């Protein structure tokens, strides 16, 4: 990984960084070389390869080195520069020991120098690798050891000493030069300044020193387990960049905060939807009446209540009513297939569903399920008390269970507690100043994801308003801009693909962007060029963040506030630093901390980590583990890949598995493939996420099927999938 993207055509612009290896390490390296029938050069080459393998995550490592090309006696006295480049290509497997790697490198070096007379240009001509003007052919990094004896120069009456020459060029991306003098080893790293900053090269050199010392101490240790972190780096990634503690205390839970706000500003607008506008008092009273009704049906702490409503004011009332009853809500998007809704209800064990007349037909009937039809039972509910029922809800009780896509073909329910919700509310307020901002948040998110709940809790409890966009507005840029203007919205959570479409519509209208105060972008990779397009159009006091998180860690875990300086030289916007009371670690496959710059997987700790997966103890134990870094803390294994930047911000690198996000929805590609394979004529299927030039992502299904012509098959497959998967999981394109 480099600090900056490669330019289309590389130049020789470079610089040099120097470092020294301790004498005791050098002595140990020589002993190791003798014990393993190798040379110091072989040990150094093996170490550089091990560091590169750890940094890149690759196993096939090719380095270049220099050969004097004077292996024939007749060339010994020939004057001229005969140096040739020799390629040393070795497979570095993470589970092999360093001693094993050294043996493999030894064989590679001996074999390569047995053919050192083959000119490098002839090798390139014969192999004909795909030429890339941004890279040198075959190798982009080299390693050299200068250990030939040098006689001191003595001139009468003159003191002679070496004079270092300025070096501002680099033939390769990286060249490690070692020079042995008087038992000491001086290192120089010649690096391309187009790709690397000096501090990154310094970090790389420091980690090489740590690994070499580790090789001396225990050469039989696996390469993946070799020490790499310096003491300073360990302190940074484990402590300094995770110093996010913020007192939270035993404050009110979310439904209590909403009630307190209603008492303070009863006549202020709390909810705006196509069907109705509600004040804080009206929202509070309607939620309380519904809560009393639910309590009479048996809802309370420890119970789950389904919520299946069309987009409108009833979504907010129903959600708060369930929480006021002491229960946890389970969102059941009425747009989901009936079979999926039935599975979610059965898996959650919810025996009550808050619904509407329009969605009753999509919910399973019988088996003791009680559907509270808020339309048909409006009069009955309207007679109940407007004060909240008494419930003994604590921070350890569940607030909601949200189902996400599952790789096995069945969705899994993420169980989030009230304490998690209180945490994210406090973190957002600390980060954005919600109390002062009082945002009017426009929600375009589905009821089935936690972002709808997020839009509610970062607006209504702070004296703002939740604006619920109708279904036809949520994906239509022109209608979205009109709604922002009509409702005076000041906050918006949006995915990059939809934001790009909105920006195009703004441009078409003359370039005036709505005067929003807070824009949270997330759920997809955000390209820097698209971020810059937004920054050029917003008002000066608008807070723009790129947010990262997951349902299992309560919405957001890290945020990044971009500006021109922080975006320079990047392709995608970083995901930033942990929110208050959140800890983020980047670990390797063995669960060890990786140094800044080295890719690894994100593990999230802190107050946002959810209880686990509802009814899935084995899966919970697999993905939620005790933290080895903070006593009493738990870590959630996200499966996302990232690396720490030198600034202390995180750069997102994609998934380590087959999970993707499209339009803010989390999708396990394996679940879509499993659904395809249930069709009797499908023999095999692979589903991938494809991104077009605008940044929009779509699912593409590659299918091996029998019978029927391709056009008819596509229509049939799409219909088949629609019967079991929500529309966002149905592939847009099919390739037979």
Automatic annotation (TrEMBL):
Domain AMP-dependent synthetase/ligase: 259-614
Keyword Phosphoprotein: yes
Record InterPro entries: AA_adenyl_dom, AMP-bd_C, AMP-bd_C_sf, AMP-binding_CS, AMP-dep_synth/lig_dom, CAT-like_dom_sf, Condensation_dom
Domain of life (superkingdom): Bacteria
Pfam families hit by this protein: AMP-binding, AMP-binding_C, Condensation
Keyword terms: Phosphopantetheine, Phosphoprotein
UniProt keyword Phosphoprotein present: yes
Residues of the AMP-binding enzyme C-terminal domain: 671-732
GO cellular component, as recorded: cytosol; enterobactin synthetase complex
Cofactors required: pantetheine 4'-phosphate
Example GO molecular function: 2,3-dihydroxybenzoate-serine ligase activity
PROSITE patterns tied to this protein: AMP_BINDING
GO BP field: amino acid activation for nonribosomal peptide biosynthetic process; enterobactin biosynthetic process; lipid biosynthetic process
Residues covered by the Condensation domain: 1-236
Protein name as annotated: Non-ribosomal peptide synthetase
